Every structure is written in C-alpha cells, then in structure tokens.
Amino acid sequence: MNPLLIPLAVVCSLGLAAVALSFLAILQSASSSRASDARAKIRQTQWEAALQATNETVKELTTQMQQIESQSLVAPMPHVRSGFNLSTRSQALRMHRRGESAAQIAAALQVSAQEVELLLKVHQIVLHNLAISSGTAQSGAKAARAGL
Q1: Could you please report the per-residue DSSP string of 59-89?
Q2: Which DSSP string corresponds to 28-67?
Q3: CA-based torsion, 128, 130, 136, 141: positive or negative
Q4: What are the pLDDT digits (tens) for 71-113?
C-alpha cells in the first residue's frame, strides 16, 4: 500500500463528512424555516380574527352611538305645573290679608302649602324692608326741613 493513500483517504473522509454535515444543516434549516412559516401563518390568522372581531365591535358601537344621538338628547321633563304667576300671587296675598291660613290659600289656588308660606315670608320681608327704608327717608326729609 502506498503511504500517500492514507492521508488522502483521511482528507477525502473529512471532506465527505463536511459535505454530509452541510447537507444535514441545510435540511435542518429548511425544516426550521417551514416551522417558522407555519407559526407565522397561525399568528397572522389569529391577528386577522382579532382584527375582524374588533372591527365588528366598532361597527356595533357606532350603530349604538348613532341610535343614541338620533334619540332626544334631553329627556322630556315631566309636566310640572308652575307655582305662582302674577295673578295667583296677587290672589294669595289678597286672601292672606283677609285672614285666610296658608293651607286654605294653597287648597284654593291648587299650589303647595310650602310655596304659599314662602310667598308670605318673602312678602313680609319686603314690607319690613320698605318700612325701614321709608322711615329712613322720612327722617332724612324732616332733618332737611329743619335745616331750612
């Protein structure tokens, strides 16, 4: 046997092993790439499903919002009978001067007793303030006459 044959066989064996190893690496890389692509497709499908669900939710909320906007923005107020207008107020004060109680006035005018009591208190305060201011004005006028 030739002594050069052994190193040549070793080099060829190593070259063949390197080619086989490279071939296995390429197969492994291709397999890994296919698995990665499959996972990416699954994720993309999940994202598309989530996006579609979100779009449907947005559409539903948009229709609900449009329905709410189309309805009256202000809820109808229940019909509340206004308390005192000018003539009712005049009648209440006239009845009070005649000596009728707040409950009688309220029943006759079909308003609450609290409204009548409030009206009478406000009227008394106004009369009291007028008496005070007219008393001050009269004393000022007397002082002015005395000074002449």
Answers
A1: HHHHHHHHHHHHS-SSPPPP-------HHHH
A2: HHHHHHHHHHHHHHHHHHHHHHHHHHHHHHHHHHHHHHHH
A3: negative
A4: 766 555 555 555 567 788 888 899 999 999 989 998 888 888 8
Residues 99 and 121: their CA atoms lie apart, in Å, by 15
The reported pLDDT for the residue numbered 89 is: 86
**90: closest CA among 107, 103, 104, 109?**
109
The domain segmentation of the chain, as residue ranges, is 26-67, 86-147
User: pTM for the complete prediction?
Assistant: 0.40
**CA angle 33–38–40, rounded 5-degree value:** 95
The CA–CA distances, whole Å, from 19 to 6, 12, 22, 23, 87 equal: 20, 10, 5, 6, 113
pLDDT band, residue 11 (cuts 50/70/90):
very high
Q: In angstroms, what CA-CA distances link 58 with 6, 70, 71, 135?
A: 77, 18, 20, 73
Instruction: Give the up-direction half-sphere exposure of residue 124: CA atoms within 13 A in the CB hemisphere.
Output: 8
Using only C-alpha atoms, the chain has a radius of gyration, in whole angstroms, of: 51
